[in-house]
Write a structure and sequence with these properties.
Structural class: alpha+beta
Oligomer: single chain
Distance between the termini: 59 Å
Strand order of the largest sheet: 1-2-3-9-6-4
Strand content: 5-15%
Order of helices and strands: EHHEEHEHHEHHHHHHHHEEEEHHEE
Helix content: 40-55%
Radius of gyration: 22 Å
Shape: globular
Number of strands: 11
Number of helices: 15
Length: 419
């Protein structure tokens, strides 16, 4: 791959060079950063990943739509990546860009469709009313832990714990396995020095769970997947469960945190805390446009030489899907307004055959909305205990979430399971 491609019609002197997919600006000012990258490179930009590994970032809404709707040209088959010979064994992005990971992420065609159907059917087997019921129960249990104190960090003490508690119930994990799974998933997703250790912990936990359910099925997602697996092995079921956990936990936690931040800092939502005109659903929808938890996604690989967004893409090149940048593309957001209504054309759940299955999206929405509503119901006068501008984000170009969300409120007694 040419690490510094030149735009058609431009001289080499005007080429600003590839953009590192790292650094503090992804946390502090991503929208400005994406505008600058789009200005300098257009809708498709050359980037470098950790270790000076070249790739492309697709920032344009239409271009991202094109990539995700043409799986023959832009495949999920990572085996064809032309950079594999130079990728070291300890590369920190191995958990999210893998050559030898037979999960649903890297299968294509009919086999992918069949695996997606197994996942969707297993999730559809969960009663949404029951899902909301035990999400409420877990939310109340977590809120009971801090409601009498008058203050807390809604990220560490709530948003980072609730999704995995629900997923543990849905997948059949014991409740006490949750904290270690949270740490392992965060380490893996952030792509830092502990990424591989996090991946190993999740793999061991899931493989053990699948072995237990294979021997003795219960009413949970792994058991339903195994019953419907057909030609798929227990190892393949385990791989897909790992993908589901990683794709469900952290983005849902960030969806909760980012939505609560919006409602606590934006005057349009301030009245919502006491029943005003802008609802929780509107805040959640706006976050998926303006502050989406899934910022960039790896990825797609070009199956042959092609052109995209004025760039020459070589066979085997890796393309990173710039979801946050595409959602803000001025070519489709011509008025620059916030979108809080029923416009769901955001790309936050992906697009095409590899998009998040609808039952998984519905599960995440139930967990996030129920969790937010529980906070506003139990702590009606909740407010930030720091200035909005002092809130910070995790230093990751992949998932966008707060490091903490410190709040204060009138102390209230715990429910103690009486709700």
């Amino acid at each position: 791959m040419n690490a510094c491609p030149v735009d058609h019609g431009q001289g080499a002197a005007k080429d600003p060079g590839p953009v590192p997919l790292s650094g503090p600006r992804f946390a502090t000012e991503p929208h400005q950063l994406y505008r600058e990258v789009r200005r300098d490179h257009g809708p498709v930009a050359p980037i470098v990943l950790p270790g000076d590994v070249p790739a492309w970032l697709v920032l344009g809404y239409r271009e991202l739509h094109q990539v995700t709707t043409d799986p023959a040209l832009f495949t999920r088959d990572s085996q064809i990546w032309n950079q594999w010979p130079g990728i070291p064994a300890d590369w920190p992005l191995h958990p999210m860009i893998s050559k030898d990971q037979p999960s649903i992420l890297y299968t294509v065609g009919e086999r992918h469709s069949r695996r997606s159907q197994v996942i969707s059917s297993a999730l559809e087997g969960a009663d949404p009313f029951e899902l909301r019921k035990y999400t409420e129960a877990f939310a109340d249990e977590l809120i009971d832990g801090f409601c009498s104190a008058g203050s807390c960090d809604l990220i560490a003490e709530y948003a980072m714990l609730l999704p995995v508690r629900v997923l543990a119930k849905l997948f059949g994990f014991p409740d006490e396995a949750g904290p270690a799974l949270v740490k392992a998933m965060n380490d893996m997703i952030n792509g830092g020095p502990d990424a591989l250790a996090g991946q190993r912990h999740i793999a061991g936990s899931v493989i053990g769970l699948v072995a237990e359910r294979s021997a003795e099925p219960e009413d949970d997602v792994p058991s339903r997947m195994l019953a419907d697996a057909g030609e798929f092995t227990d190892d393949e079921v385990s791989r897909d469960l790992m993908v589901m956990m990683a794709a469900a936990h952290q983005p849902t936690a960030d969806w909760i945190g980012n939505s609560l931040r919006l409602m606590l800092t934006d005057d349009r939502f301030a009245a919502s805390l006491s029943g005003g005109r802008h609802s929780v659903a509107e805040a959640m929808n706006e976050v998926l446009w303006e502050d989406t938890p899934t910022q960039n996604v790896a990825g797609r690989w070009a199956s042959r030489d092609t052109h995209l967004g004025g760039k020459h893409i070589q066979a085997g090149d890796l393309l990173i899907l710039g979801v946050a940048a595409a959602n803000a593309d001025p070519q489709v957001r011509t008025d620059g307004s916030a979108l809080t209504g029923g416009n769901n054309a955001f790309l936050s759940f992906g697009h095409g055959e590899h998009r998040c299955p609808f039952p998984a999206q519905e599960t995440a929405e139930i967990i996030a909305r129920t969790g937010i509503e529980a906070i506003l119901d139990r702590l009606p006068d909740v407010d930030l205990s720091v200035r909005a501008e002092d809130l910070t984000r995790r230093p990751s170009p992949w998932l966008r979430g707060l490091t903490e969300l410190p709040v204060r409120f009138t102390p209230t007694p715990a429910l103690g399971g009486t709700r």
